[in-house]
Amino acid sequence: MKLIKTIKNFLFPVHCLGCNKKGDYLCPDCLNKITLISHNFCPKCLKISSNGRLCPNCKNSSFPVEKIIISLYYSNPLVAELIKKYKFFPFAYELAKPLGLLLSKAIKETNALSYLQKENFKIIPVPLTKKDKAKRGFNQTYELAKIVSQELNLPISENTIFKIKTTKPQVGLNAQQRKNNLKNAFQVKKNLNQENFLIIDDIITTGSTVYQVAKTLKNKGANQIWAAILAKG
Length: 233
Ligand SMILES: [Zn+2]
Ligand SMILES: [Zn+2]
Fold this sequence. Notes:
The chain is built from nine helices and eight strands. By secondary structure, the chain is of the alpha/beta class. The longest helix has 14 residues, at 96-109. The two termini are 34 Å apart. Bound molecules: zinc ion (2 copies). One zinc ion binds at residues 42, 44-45, 47, 54-55, 57-58.
């Protein structure tokens, strides 16, 4: 793998999106300089909340996600550039590593890791339809989840949830349209027997994807659901 990377870098030199240095899409110096969001959000309304749980306004409504951790703001130009390069053609697949490390760091900084491990949380990357995965060649959230799984020593829950409906891109849709678009888009084929899950996604805007995934898991018997998101749009 290393040799292939060396040859590839020689033929098509890659530059750091932060400082333009040759070698990686994100050099270790620029990776270290990216600051994580230091406050927490309410998983339902996504407004700032003191502990990443439902805020006083949302507290009395039922919501399937108990706690959310968001690592970065998409409005940071370097973050936006990195995610675009990672998600869109021609894919800089290698960016899964530094982006996954940033997400892992955000989860560690909440001091919740020992709790997640003790309560046997399993990671659920937001799935793509078979067709969309084939088109891209990989599921970008699954690749992030692999890094988080290694870093945090939490297993990925494989083959638990599937995306069974092709949906329109969420961009350009309002909150209600986003909800309708994702209705019945996911399916869980087994009973989840009070298991706990940590959903992983790349970008959150209104929260409708995480909500739909969480609701589908809950309907099949999941117990606690948390979410960890790379960036807030
Ligand atoms: Zn750099
Ligand atoms: Zn709220």
